[in-house]
Amino acid sequence: MDDDATDNHPETDPQAGEDHAVVLGAGMAGLLAARVLARRFPRVTLIERDELTGGGPELRSGIPQSRHAHILWSRGMRLMEQMLPGVTATLVEAGASLLETPRDFLWLSPADWFQSVPGTKVLIAGRDLLDWTVREEVLRDGRIRILGGAAATGLVAGPDGRSVAGVQLRDAAPLAARLVVDATGRTSKATAWLAALGYPAPAVTRYDPHLGYSSRYFEMPADPERRWHGMYVQSRPDLPRGGVLVPQGKDRWLVTLIGNGEHAPPVKDEEFFAFARSLRSPALYDAIRDATPLSQATAFRSTVNEWRHYERLERWPAGLVVLGDAACRFNPVYGHGMTVAALAVEALAKEIRTLDPEQIAAASRRIQRSTTAAAAVPWQIATSEDMRYAVTEGPPPDRATRILQNYMSRVMVGANADPVISGRFFGVLSLTASPNTLLSPATMIRVLSKWRLPTAPDTADYPAHYRPAGDRA
């Protein structure tokens, strides 16, 4: 990173905003947005309310999920690599794991254990490591600067009253900009800021599955016979408890327990283990019961799906784009957040690739619609699955959704063992393939003619490719 990449003195000259873009939020969406904006703007400033020490990966309040399990699906990995060539290798060298799912995992789906079937690549790392590494790579571009410990408090209206000309900063002079990108995630105040400029609030669609996380780190026990690298015991509507175990470097595991409603996982030590023991399979509990805890458990409860429909507003100011979770956020249990951020930034890059800064600002309404469209498929995946649970609050499923849910249950049964169905299922889940892949006549015939609905018991035995130490032949 350049020595002068962190700037604590924002430019106050209004004329300086003409070829200047400001990005609010230095999470994944904000960092990648700054990267692609620097191709068209001579200057890009990232504004991050957290103090950034610059000393290495850090868990910070601006990323509240950072203490819980994260994955980057293959589509997101590929897009991130296109924007930042070599970043994947850098992450792996720093301790991230590049794995094949489901082959490298013990994965108990709602139907049964996945066999050794084709799937997709995933990158697994702590969110602190992911953000630090991406930030370091982004700030190698001398056109990009970051203001740590700074907070935006509002938008600056342009002289015509129909555009945004910068941002108000807390305890500092306004920062002029041709384009402002709000990528502050769930903390976005864009609706209130737009209201202050005379714009109506957008319609909001909301599904709350009342899902909770509880996570803690463990020392990875030595076991030369272990043939898996991670584990996922999925919940079902009749037993809404699950758990994820993923590697964090070479010698640690991160275990995230998951539950809906009254089944939200606890944080107290003994209760944490008891919850793990109550899952549909004893596999996760057996993996950690003799492992040394390296931290206390940490809870996370903000898992609502919420779409603020800025793309539907009839009036939209030139010079503003609301990106990523600030526009549409998901239940994180499906692991789509970072990949959707990369998809939205890819849409941004396509929209601006031939435009100059003034044209980009003028096209902000079109850009808003294009970037938001990246959320459509993961939104469908998250909400249709969440609607299976009785505690989920939101619009009830219509007949088409119920038919899709029934069909996807059959797809899951097939994907557990059939390599063709599995490959297509993981193509859709990783956002690499269109959902229509699973609705083609050939796939539907294969799914409906060969497989029945799930009949697995609430408590599943161990899969054939794993036995606890005491039970191995």
Explain what the structure shows.
There is one protein chain. The protein is built from 14 helices and 20 strands. It has about 475 residues and is an alpha/beta fold. The strands form five sheets. Strands 5-14-15-16-13-17 form a six-stranded mixed β-sheet. Helix 1 links the parallel strand 1 and strand 2 (about 45-50). The longest helix is centred in the last third of the chain and has 17 residues, at about 400-415.
Summarize the structure.
This protein is 30% helix and 21% strand.
**Annotation, overall tally of beta strands:** 20
Radius of gyration: 23 Å
Strand arrangement within the widest β-sheet reads 5-14-15-16-13-17
Overall average pLDDT: 91
Uncertain runs are 1-12
Helix fraction?
Answer: 25-40%
**Which range does the strand content fall in?**
15-25%
Give the overall shape, derived from the CA principal axes: globular
> In this structure, how is the largest beta sheet organized?
6 strands, mixed
Structural class: alpha/beta
Number of helices: 14
**How far apart are the termini?**
53 Å
What is the topological layout?
Blueprint: E1 20-24, H1 28-37, E2 43-48, E3 71-73, H2 74-83, H3 87-93, E4 97-101, E5 105-108, E6 120-124, H4 127-138, E7 144-148, E8 152-157, E9 164-169, E10 172-176, E11 179-182, H5 190-196, E12 204-207, E13 211-219, E14 230-233, E15 241-247, E16 252-260, H6 269-277, H7 283-288, E17 298-300, E18 305-308, E19 320-322, E20 328-329, H8 337-352, H9 357-362, H10 364-373, H11 376-386, H12 399-415, H13 419-429, H14 441-450
Parallel strand pairs: 1-2, 1-11, 2-7, 5-14, 11-19
Antiparallel strand pairs: 3-6, 4-6, 8-9, 9-10, 12-18, 13-16, 13-17, 14-15, 15-16, 18-20
Helix pairs in contact: 1-4, 1-8, 2-8, 8-10, 12-13, 12-14
